[in-house]
Amino acid sequence: MTPFSRVLIANRAEVAARVIRTLDDMGIGSVAVFSDADADLPFVHEADMAVRLPGTTPGVTYLNIDAVIAAAKISDADAIHPGYGFLAENAEFATRCAEEGITFIGPSPAAIAAMGSKVKAKQLVRAAGVPLLDDIDLSDPEVIPYPVLVKASAGGGGRGMRIVRSADELEPGMESARLEAANAFGDDTIFVERWLENVRHIEVQIIGDTHGNVAHLFERECSIQRRHQKVVEEAPSVAISPAMRDGLTSAAVAAAAAVDYVGVGTVEFLVAGEEFFFLEMNTRLQVEHPVTEMVTGIDLVREQIAVAMGEALSDQVRNVSVYGHAIEVRLYAEDPPSGWLPGTGPLHRFWFDDTVRVDAGYESGSIVGTDYDPMLAKIIAYADTRTETASVLARAMRSAEIHGPHTNRDLLVGILEHEAFVAAATPTSFLEDHTIAALMAPDETRTRDHIVAATLATSAGRSAAAGVQTSIPSGWRNLFSQPQLVMRTVGSVEHIVTYAHRRDGLVVAI
């Protein structure tokens, strides 16, 4: 196949920026598409060309297949990379690309459709010998083994899922799951399976080419989740044995081969003790793919593109090995102690040191809105050991300069430094077993520093707002009498702060 000259990325923010970086490295032109809400984000300016998508509803804009295809034609793109989310697992979109003579950088429409339906996917992998949880027969309510999980057949991301722990919760849970599934995916098909407590979520990265080859790039541990959305991911998993690893990777390859899979994808499993069960297959690049890249040295986006151009799997993929350990955290503009309310507004300062990899969709000066998922960036650390990696990542997160909307930064640091995480005791119930308040217990030194910084900012703000004598600090006295007094509340604790500008400098006391 002729190499691509220009690739359109049918996605936004961090996803688009990540793909653009590899396209630049490969000498391939990049085309960004954007909604009005995203016009000033970095990815729009990083691409070689950018095309505005029509529409005034931001969330719908990137889902407009006709508009994305039109943008590819306008920009003379010969391929489309869907990223993850939006149209990435849309079989109709992949079909349209083929009809328009545009290469879809992903699996075939048939593979997307097969694995997009969890019901059909389970039938396929069962035939391939992959272990899975059987659907529960609801015809006899007396023998239903509670707790059970109601799941939407289409989609993912935790939507259309309900844990049901008793008979009186079953019908309401099923109806709620149906409604959410219909609204989110346009398909209200649901099924019920056994709910496993204290399990781990382990997924295997796979890749297939057009020559019939399928390989795995080992596993990732993604057990720390909130409402079935991953929060912390790492590779490799330290919780499974070599025998379990062999079983998981073999099952993942078998699942991919069952649909003649081409491109990168992820096969997800639940691990309970020495047993594992197929959960689902994501027919796209995953948000957490950087941890696999860090421990294998393989650029997964490059491999995606190479496979889409008709190349066979590289020797590096065929002979892959794992070195060291990588951990990724997802930094969101949200406030966990306040019910996870999303944060909005300008990012006045957004900086991380160079000890970590930062895949970001925003930069200093960017405006964070409410139109899209609130993820600001993925922060990834790599070191020889898991303990060292967690320490490097926690330090980088703690020292990061993030000035603007509330974020979950302190929660992430709390997780990374918690004794249970350090001991790798991380089942999917981690965020239920450890309260937000415990994980975000304040550091008194940091609290004091924040209070002092806020006091200084208040003083400077008053001086700047003064109509006259703006060079004189707030609270200045020729003859010292009484200091300025400010009350600061952190959580439920009140702090009395006094400060005074004197000839020998600023004096602050808490």
Number of helices: 18
Strand fraction: 25-35%
Mean pLDDT: 90
Structure summary, number of beta strands: 25
Low-confidence stretches: none
Summarize the biggest pleated sheet. Answer: 8 strands, antiparallel
Q: N- to C-terminal separation?
A: 69 Å
In what order do the strands lie side by side in the largest sheet? Answer: 13-12-9-10-11-14-21-19
Based on Cα principal axes, name the global outline: globular
Helical coverage, percent range: 25-40%
Calculate Rg over CA atoms: 25 Å
The secondary-structure class comes to: alpha+beta
Provide structural commentary.
With 510 residues, this protein is an alpha+beta fold. Helices cover 34% and strands 27% of the residues. It contains 18 helices and 25 strands. The strands form 7 sheets. An 8-stranded antiparallel sheet has the order 13-12-9-10-11-14-21-19, with helices on both faces. A hairpin with a 2-residue loop joins β23 and β24. α5 packs antiparallel against α6 and α13 runs antiparallel to α14.
